Amino acid sequence: MALRELDRAGLNVLCLEARDYIGGRILTLHDPLSPIPLELGAEFIHGRPPELWNFIRDANLGVYDCGDRAVHIKDGKVQSDTDAWVPVDRVMSDMQEAAERLPDQPFSVFLENSSHSEEAKRLSANFVEGFNAARKEIVGIHSLAQDTKASDEIDGDRSFRFIGGYDSLAHALINGVSDPASKLRLNSVVQTISWSSGSVTVRVRSSITGRKDTVHCRRVLITVPLGVLQAEPDESGAIRFDPEPKEVLAAARRLEFGQVFRVVLRFQEPFWEKNPDLADAGFLFSDEPLFPTWWTPLPRRVPILTGWSAGPHADALQGRSRQEVVRAATASLAKIVGIGNDALNRLLVSAHFHDWHADPFARGAYSYVPACALPAREILARPVENTLYFAGEAIDLHGHSATVHGAIASALEAASLIGNA
Ligand SMILES: Cc1cc2nc3c(=O)[nH]c(=O)nc-3n(C[C@H](O)[C@H](O)[C@H](O)COP(=O)(O)OP(=O)(O)OC[C@H]3O[C@@H](n4cnc5c(N)ncnc54)[C@H](O)[C@@H]3O)c2cc1C
Which atom of ligand 1 is nearest to 394's Cα? Predict the structure, then answer.
């Protein structure tokens, strides 16, 4: 989005991308044997964020509304008739009020001091940790309240998917750039940014040939994930700054980068639909330690389930092989839907997974804000000597971080700052 905006503003712009594809944490697999595109990164459009919907309309991209009925389930049996979102919504709206009155504090402290039932506390802790890829002992209520308010303002309890896959967004964006072949270089790993006010030298290594190259410019917009910004300069994928923008890097380290393991399983048939309790469920919540959350592709009735392990649940999966992660996911799912492991594995056709934590150009899933760390984001969003600019989901200041639309909003703001500099 930043490349497109800067190009359209008539600036001489070049985008250096380490991967061999565009989209970053948007990663869609187009498996000809699958009835729908398989998302290994972002999947949902959360609500109706204008910066995304305006573009969707202009580019004429197809999207559809998702089913979001949630059940809390154990051994194939739904635990309560109430939609599992209801107690969570109550706790979250209480938290919003508390955030206005109280100093920032970890979500776990807010829960301990609240009078909600133990069940409501457990469900909402699971929700906060799962959705934000966060730890309840770290994530602050001020940022959670800001996010909840921002989400309410854009109909955030509704979600949508791209018919053609999330990557149709990335491709439509790049189609809006004039002569993209000369303005976007793939397989180009930025290694060093040497700078002084109004003058930047970027050292780049080709991930194909290993050849090193140098690019000179007046300003640079850095949109790497927070995990890459937090990495030590000699770690794979990291960028060495010379000199270091110390305040910015210190601010980046005050924020947290959450972990997610997400596994997409394709089956011979949507076997869960035979259970009347599950036939119309969008989301399945459970107390399984490794993969507690699953969702179906409703309203599409196709044999695909996505398993989600985030925050503390994901700890035990780090460093495990692909096979081990998939085995952990199928074992959790077998218990949740109440069919034997062997029966489930006989129905399984394929399993898909991308290890975002081990990926040197991501180093995790998405950002969250510890208690008392909200000002760190503002420091990241501030240009350094009109020369270094930062953008990306972690830098969105309006409660939409950790999302695609937050990343897009942040890119639009940075592009406008550069255009007006
Ligand atoms: C599993 C998962 C599920 C998600 N689900 C959703 C969802 O349903 N809905 C939603 O809105 N959001 C979701 N998100 C979050 C969303 O994907 C991100 O917030 C968003 O895509 C971030 O965009 P970005 O431009 O900030 O960063 P990125 O998309 O990560 O882009 C940063 C780019 O920098 C490149 N880069 C890194 N290091 C270097 C280097 N040294 N040199 C050159 N290039 C480099 C990377 O390759 C990458 O392309 C999900 C994320 C994950 C991981």
Answer: 26
What is the distance between the alpha carbons of residues 85 and 82, in angstroms, rounded to a whole number? Answer: 8
**CA 32/CA 410 separation, integer angstroms:** 34
pLDDT of residue 46: 96
Distance CA 309, CA 328 (A): 10
Pocket of ligand 1 contains residue 220 by CB under 6 Å = no
pLDDT at 194: 98
Neighbours of 85 (CB within 10 A): 17
Q: Which DSSP string do the residues of 334-363 spell out, in sequence order? A: HHHHT--HHHHHHHEEEEEE--TTT-TTTS
Q: Which atom of ligand 1 is the closest one to the Cα of 410?
A: 26
Say if residues 288 and 332 touch (Cβ distance below 8 Å).
yes
Query: In this structure, which residue's CA is closest to atom 6 in ligand 1?
Result: 42
Q: Measured from the CB, is residue 227 less than 6 Å from ligand 1?
A: no
Report pLDDT for 84. 66
CA of 343 to the centre of ligand 1 (A): 36
341-362 burial by CB neighbour count: b if 16+ within 10 A, else e?
eeebeeebeebbbbbbbebebb
Question: Which residue puts its alpha carbon closest to atom 32 of ligand 1?
Answer: 224
| Helix ranges, 203-311 (H) | 226-230, 246-254
Say what the pLDDT of residue 71 is: 86
| pLDDT for residue 63 | 97
Low-confidence spans in the chain with pLDDT less than 50: none
Q: From the CB of 365, is ligand 1 less than 6 Å away?
A: yes
The answer to whether the CB of 308 falls within 8 A of the CB of 336 is: no
Residue 86 is predicted with a pLDDT of 83
Q: Model confidence over 115-127: pLDDT tens digits?
A: 999 989 998 999 9
C-beta 414 within 6 A of ligand 1:
no
| Host H or E run for residue 170 | helix 167-175
Minimum CA distance residue for ligand 1 atom 24: 392
Does ligand 1 come within 6 angstroms of the Cβ of 223? yes
